[in-house]
Structure formats: C-alpha cells, structure tokens
Design a protein that fits this description.
Largest sheet: none
Number of strands: 0
Structural class: mainly alpha
Strand content: under 5%
Shape: elongated
Number of helices: 11
C-alpha cells in the first residue's frame, strides 16, 4: 500500500494493530489466504488512519488494494462489484480487529522519543537519525512493540547503533528525561538484534 501520504505514526499504529490481531487470533490468521492477509492489513491501515486523525477515503484505499491484486494476478478488473467486495472485506477486517483488541485503540508511538534523540544528536547527525528511524521501523516487523513500550524500543535501537557503529549518544541523558521513565534493564532485554 502507498503509505507515503500518511505519517509514520499511521504506519506504526497499523503494525501494532496487526500484531495485536495476529497474537490474539493465531489460528485464524494461520488459515488466511495471502489475499486475506493483504485485506486484513488494509483494514488495520484504515483503522490506523482514523486513530491518528490522518484519514484516508475508503475508495482510495480500495483502489490501492485493487491495483495490487490486479498486478498480482495480471488482470484489469475494476468492476463495481469487485470494488464493493474489497471495500466490504476491509470493513469486515476493521471490525474483526477492533473486536479482537476489545476496542482498545490506545497505541503508544515512538515519535516523542525519536524527537528527543534527534535533539540529542543535533543537526550535524541527521543521517544517523535517519538510520535510527529505519532501524526503529524494522522493529515493527517483529512483535516487540507488544512487549516493550516505544521509549524502550527507541533507546534499544539507539543503543544498538551506539554499540555497532560507535556513534556517540548520551543514553543516560535521554533515559533521565523524567517524562519517559526508561529502564536500562528493559532496554537490555529488548535488544532485538
């Protein structure tokens, strides 16, 4: 799906919602056909845009899914019935996801913690910050976001960069910011790499 029109928070929220959905319903998800996984992801993405007040029109999302399926199956189907079927399935998955997570759409995101590290690094290390964000995004392919809060994940990624690339960051200073309450023992347990 083309997520370039939405903030990274929409992407992170959608990934968290999918992880919650999969973990709360593993047998159901194992029996999905590949197309159903795409439609479930579209349902999570659609819900995520609402949670983050960064809405997408359902018809725009349906068109993206249709183009994906048409490319995958080398066809040119854009019939009203086909589009309506995709739309209804996305709505069904949105409802299933909400039901599975007991309508708990509270999603903690890493943005405030990433901004704190960006400030700590300074403007001269903007490339380092980009790499940190990329590593952070990669953590969302794992269910780590369900077991560790975002601040722990961000500091864990920063520690990884510090250890592997010898990048100097004052992690103690970042962890000491009272509003974040980061536990370095949790950071060690979180090390996904």
């Amino acid at each position: 799906l083309n997520s370039s029109i939405h903030s990274i928070d929409v992407f992170h929220s959608a990934m968290i919602l999918m992880h919650k959905f999969i973990l709360s319903n593993p047998n159901f998800f194992l029996n999905f056909q590949p197309d159903q996984k795409i439609l479930a992801a579209a349902g999570a993405y659609f819900l995520s845009t609402k949670i983050n007040n960064n809405f997408i029109f359902i018809d725009s999302l349906v068109k993206q899914v249709m183009l994906l399926f048409n490319k995958k199956y080398n066809r040119q189907d854009s019939s009203k019935e086909y589009l309506e079927n995709i739309k209804e399935t996305i709505f069904e998955y949105e409802t299933q996801i909400l039901t599975c997570i007991n309508f708990d759409v509270e999603v903690d995101l890493p943005s405030p913690f990433l901004l704190r590290i960006k400030k700590e690094l300074g403007q001269q290390h903007s490339k380092v910050f980009e790499i940190l964000c990329s590593i952070m995004n990669d953590t969302y392919t794992l269910p780590l976001c369900l077991f560790f809060d975002p601040s722990t994940l961000v500091v864990s990624c920063a520690k990884f960069m510090q250890d592997k690339f010898s990048i100097k960051m004052d992690l103690d200073k970042i962890c000491a910011v009272s509003e974040f309450q980061i536990n370095l023992e949790e950071v060690q347990r979180c090390q996904p790499f």
